[in-house]
Specification:
By secondary structure, the protein is of the alpha/beta class. Helix content is 34%, strand content 13%.
Length: 368
């Protein structure tokens, strides 16, 4: 029962950390989490980035927002092995930096790469017509001006929506003044895009378009969902990573260990992060990870249950495991919070403010 409790807590934390609601999971999240735990126990943008929308620019002032750099420095590592050999903590742009830029948009990833992150973090799932897209939620209601489940919509349908519609600095919220929605309308042409960006940069993206646009940046990928739909997505993901020669540049995970196992069957050479059951077994009981797994991705704590205890961190270091932390409480998403996590011994920061994280790692290295 203890293992079930912390597993439920960890997954609920993960759902909450990406919904912009300051780490508070909904009752629906927790109900879904329990069911999952009990069942599994654990470089220019291509023109095909999204179905294009005709732009009719109006007399609207362009929002005062950052434009992606047209010339980004080459990433320090192009493969996972090179990344782990850097000998320093790495910075992952969580969904492109979801508190700073619209979640999972090409615009977010462009700005993150320009900021100098080491790795891009993506969530993937399949549309009704079998297209692998980069999107966190099972539906599009939270982030776009539309509604509906990803699995029941075609890619062409998804691509017409404004994936920055509800974004505000710091959260995806619906109760802010209109002026706070600084990216709203760029996708549909109601507002001109920032310099260097296009309306397509604010659409739901195909996975292959992100890979093609940033061919040298390593990827941390979570396969969303569980069961047959997630396994189908795992198969398409493996095929596209093979097609684009990115097998050695990618870390793949899922909360469902069965999905991780299925992906391993499709692409046995790809670096894997353990799912919920295996991570829980290590955190609670010290059960070693399967051979070949060397990266843990965990939150610091949730509802009073501390995950990153000194004992857990020490044991992970002794076992040769790396810890990539994804903060599930906004208190960590500050310069001081990042510094504290680095002082605790974190090997990776999967964070919402990419540029701030890069600065924090640089400062930590300088002070070491």
């Amino acid at each position: 029962m203890k293992a079930l409790l912390i597993a439920t807590v960890l997954l609920a934390a993960a759902c909450a950390s990406s919904d912009g609601q300051d780490g508070a999971a909904s009752a629906a999240d927790v109900t879904k989490t329990t069911a999952v735990v009990e069942s599994v126990m654990p470089t220019a943008a291509p023109t095909t980035a999204a179905p294009t929308t005709e732009v009719t620019t109006t007399e609207v002032t362009t929002p005062s927002i950052a434009a992606p750099s047209t010339v980004a420095a080459a990433p320090p590592a192009a493969t996972v092995d090179e990344l782990l050999a850097l000998g320093r903590p790495i910075v992952l742009a969580h969904a492109g930096g979801e508190d700073e830029f619209p979640h999972s948009t090409a615009y977010a990833y462009a700005n993150s790469v320009a900021a100098g992150v080491d790795m891009l973090d993506l969530d993937v799932q399949l549309t009704a017509d079998g297209v692998l897209v980069v999107h966190h939620d099972s539906d599009i209601d939270r982030t776009t001006d539309g509604t509906g489940d990803v699995a029941t919509m075609t890619y062409e349908q998804l691509g017409t929506y404004d994936n920055a519609y509800w974004f505000t600095a710091g959260c995806v919220c619906r109760d802010r003044p209109d002026a706070d929605y600084v990216y709203r309308g760029i996708r549909t042409g109601a507002v001109p895009p920032p310099d260097g960006a296009t309306p397509d940069d604010f659409a739901i993206q195909r996975f292959r378009d992100i890979v093609e646009r940033w061919p040298d940046v390593p990827l941390n990928i979570e396969i969303k969902g569980n069961g047959d739909p997630a396994i189908a997505a795992a198969e398409v993901l493996a095929a596209e990573l093979t097609e684009f020669d990115r097998l050695d540049a990618t870390v793949v995970t899922s909360f469902d260990d069965a999905v991780v196992d299925a992906f391993a069957g499709f692409a046995p050479t790809v670096e894997l992060t353990p799912g919920l059951a295996l991570s829980t077994a290590w955190v609670l009981d010290g059960t070693p990870l399967p051979d070949g797994m060397r990266i843990l991705q965990v939150p610091p704590a949730y509802e009073g249950i501390e995950v990153l205890t000194p004992e857990m961190i020490a044991a992970s270091k002794a076992a040769g495991y790396l810890i990539w932390v994804w903060p599930n409480d906004r208190k960590w998403e500050t310069a001081d919070g990042y510094q504290e996590l680095l002082d605790m011994g974190m090997d990776g920061l999967n964070i919402n403010y990419p540029a701030l994280g890069v600065e924090a790692v640089d400062a930590w290295i300088a002070a070491s």
